[in-house]
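Researcher: Let's continue the batch. This sequence belongs to DUF4229 domain-containing protein, and it's 107 residues. Same format as the previous ones, please.
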Amino acid sequence: MLRYTLMRLGIFAGCLVVVWGLVYSEVVPRGLGASNGMWVVLLALVLSAPISFVVLRKERDRASVKIVERVDRAKANLDANRSQEDDVDDSVRAHQDTAPAQGQTAS
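Model: Same format as before. Here are the structure tokens for DUF4229 domain-containing protein:
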């Protein structure tokens, strides 16, 4: 997951440099007034999203498989814990059912 995130940030940084160069060389228009920095960042974000979607498809699939494995493992651990609690509770209840109640005499 960290690898995917770093790769995604790298693509964004590359797009940011390219967009900044295009704005600086006036190929792409500057933002209005003092909004030039925000314009560059937003344009880089818009460009990097589809590039990341296409280029990082395999890495995203790998990361999702790891996430699914972790979730399945956590579910299995929860089920195991639940069944342990149920087993203890059932054994206590069974012991209480077989023991004579206090104050009563056995006949």
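Researcher: Any comment?
Model: The helical segments are 2-24, 36-55, 57-98.
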